[in-house]
Specification:
The protein has 349 residues and is mostly helical. The chain is built from 15 helices and 2 strands. 70% of the residues lie in helices and 1% in strands. Strand 1 and strand 2 form a beta hairpin.
Length: 349
């Protein structure tokens, strides 16, 4: 096996990075007065921080062969809950943020328990738990918005989104830190290796002594952690509690996570790939928006990109498996497990 066959062709591994650069250059040439400006770059970094965090959260269950459809509902509940605690309950904002983040972890772990111990397919289970989260969101808000009083929100809380560091918006550094942490967990720690093995072949993972149910719960809990953080950041950005806003972020999150599995490490979900994919989406959406596209262009762009991402993800996974197969079709040993093309009902214990 050649070095390129083992590691993947550079175009396959980094083509999406080139696409992001190409899109930026193309829109800069088309919109020289507005697109390649510092203000526009800052706006892109700020506006895409919440989708990026949510996409990173979706990446973790995908790495373990699961899908978490509750992340959009969870985002809506998290940002409404933090506003409820600060505005209506008078809870200090650091404590309110901590409660929401911890609650996100617990909600994610509950998703994992439902999937693994109730033996329900992850798509169905998380859609059900997400609907329950949406019900709690409606109960907290009574169907209306949570609006701060005349004094507004604490400055320390709004600075979570509005502050700048080194001339760039602070949310960009949150995303960068989240990518680094997730990269270390998935690529350098045993828990990440176990998640990939579970996602690639649960039966083989059990034969190796890996507790597949435990690591699946860990994956959902990690997803909930990112959802909680994204919810806090969304509340600091919007400064109101809107019960219907979370679902708008569900599709872009999965587009980023699935498209990210086609780059850097083609065939499996990875943090750096997700970051690159979110960058492509951010540049593309900002460009078509400034060109004056109609309101329906954004969901059209996201939907088409999702279909492309799923197709490329499956192709990359199959190609990775073929590259690891020996002459007789069996594994040639070594390498890392590929992302399953389409996670289905878990194998029996």
């Amino acid at each position: 096996m050649t070095r390129w066959a083992a590691r993947g062709h550079p175009i396959g591994r980094y083509g999406l990075v080139g696409l992001a650069a190409l899109l930026f250059v193309a829109f800069s040439l088309a919109l020289p007065d507005t697109f390649p400006t510092r203000d526009n770059v800052s706006a892109i970094l700020s506006n895409q921080s919440v989708p990026a965090l949510l996409a990173l959260g979706a990446t973790i269950p995908i790495a373990s062969g699961r899908f978490d459809l509750s992340i959009g509902y969870g985002l809506g509940l998290a940002h409404v809950l933090v506003m409820h605690l600060i505005v209506e309950e008078g809870v200090p904002w650091p404590l309110a943020c901590a409660v929401v983040v911890v609650g996100g972890v617990l909600a994610g772990a509950l998703n994992g328990v439902v999937v693994e111990f109730a033996r329900i397919d992850s798509l169905i289970a998380t859609l059900g738990t997400g609907s329950i989260m949406y019900a709690f969101t409606g109960w907290l808000t009574d169907g209306g918005r949570i609006v701060p009083g005349p004094d507004g929100l604490p400055a320390g809380f709004t600075d979570l989104y509005d502050a700048r560091f080194l001339g760039l918006p602070v949310p960009a550094f949150y995303v960068l830190a989240a990518v680094v942490v997730l990269w270390v967990v998935l690529e350098r720690l045993p828990v990440g290796r176990y998640l990939y093995v579970v996602g690639s072949n649960p039966r083989a993972a059990r034969m190796l002594g890996i507790r597949t149910r435990r690591y699946s719960v860990y994956a959902f809990a990690g997803s909930g952690l990112f959802v909680g953080i994204a919810g806090v950041l969304l509340a600091a950005q919007q400064q109101i509690g809107n019960p219907s806003v979370g679902l708008d972020y569900l599709l872009p999150a999965f587009v980023g996570a699935l498209l990210g599995s086609t780059t850097v490490h083609p065939g499996r979900a990875n943090a750096l790939g997700t970051l690159v994919a979110v960058g492509v989406l951010a540049v593309g959406l900002a460009g078509i928006g400034q060109l004056g596209a109609e309101f329906w262009a954004t969901p059209l762009f996201n939907g088409c990109t999702l279909l492309l991402a799923v197709g490329l993800s499956g192709y990359a996974a199959r190609r990775r498996l073929r590259s690891r197969a020996g002459p007789g079709g069996g594994p040639s040993g070594g390498g890392e497990p590929a992302l399953r093309e389409a996670p289905s009902r878990d194998a029996p214990p």
